[in-house]
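Handout, section 4.2: multi-component inputs.
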Amino acid sequence: MKTLVIVSHPEINNSQTQQFLLQGAKLQDVTWHHVEEISDLDVAQEQVLLRENDRIIFQFPLYWYAAPEGLKHWEDEVLTRNFVYGDGDDNLSDKEFGIVVSTGMPLKEFRRGGSENITIDQIMAPYFAIADRAKMKILPTFTIAQFQYMDEQQQMQLLIDYQRFLTQKYPDTLSNRQAWFEQEFADRFKNFNDTNCTECETVLNTFIQRREDLEQLKNTIDLIKQGEDE
Amino acid sequence: MKTLVIVSHPEINNSQTQQFLLQGAKLQDVTWHHVEEISDLDVAQEQVLLRENDRIIFQFPLYWYAAPEGLKHWEDEVLTRNFVYGDGDDNLSDKEFGIVVSTGMPLKEFRRGGSENITIDQIMAPYFAIADRAKMKILPTFTIAQFQYMDEQQQMQLLIDYQRFLTQKYPDTLSNRQAWFEQEFADRFKNFNDTNCTECETVLNTFIQRREDLEQLKNTIDLIKQGEDE
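Output:
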């Protein structure tokens, strides 16, 4: 599965959040595509990029309940009607669409009665409408609230969750999570081969052993449930 | 009451709809403010303009379920947090906020199950959220669907409804409508003074007479209802 991250931020070098996410994205095999850096937008080329990827992510900070103008410019130029739904080619259908949004407000304000008085899903509805039009599958929005207040552990958790959002198979089930972590461990440990990292192998083997134990446990529970149902 | 119409359209001269609306706006005492024509955005000046007006209208064609990038640029620059809700000055509070949106799709497609599968209100939620944040009063959205298919009579109706949206007192009650039409008649007929337009006066007097008849009728109905309730 190939992932394209379409990032919009007018001052990306000054954004701690975006720089942090960039580090995470670099560890994954994804295409990072910053729209404000495109000096001469080639619509055909952008459309090729969309066609080549299976998961399309819009990533941006929330400015007045929407993406910055840069993403709207990209949308209005690249997403021609024919490309999205007009010519029957179904260029985007069955691809996955997700949003990574950051906000300086606490998440709890995004609800009826909160200071923002609107939910994240309501804010994203216009983007979901594009995805619906293109017959894409919509992923749950990945919201990053108040990155600046996160401690190191929270940031590490964010990094892993973000990486999973970029490349883990959807839906986010236990088995899909396990498969993603196992793959990640194996890939990372390859890099330690020169130094003969025995610890790494122990971690990976322990992980696999635990996963197998869990599967065994699940089977046992299923058998008990079956017995109860009869 | 002073009205500011903030218009966003990247090719306004080629837009039949916008040119038509411009003719209507010219007949009203409103400020027409086309954001794509602003070459050097002066944030302080724009904020003065907002402060000076009582009704703020965003007017734009629907591009991918939102305004064109030009309006987003204006929003992100002009609507500083302090200005909208930060400094306790309540610069915009109790002003009226309305949207005039045009679309090439039939109105019936904007509902669950329609080809757009999203309502106009859902599309506008991010703009309403700004208005809520600024403690503004939200007017019902004025939607223009498929202007290009309207016949002359439908266009005339649109023109009047649009003008009422710009300057008529809210809410859109019978008495507010009557007051608006009476004022419009009087204003327009002044222009005919030189030619001594007796027909104009007859129209105006008939209109006033009908309005008085209607008020009388309403009083009678109220009395009957009162009798029934006792």
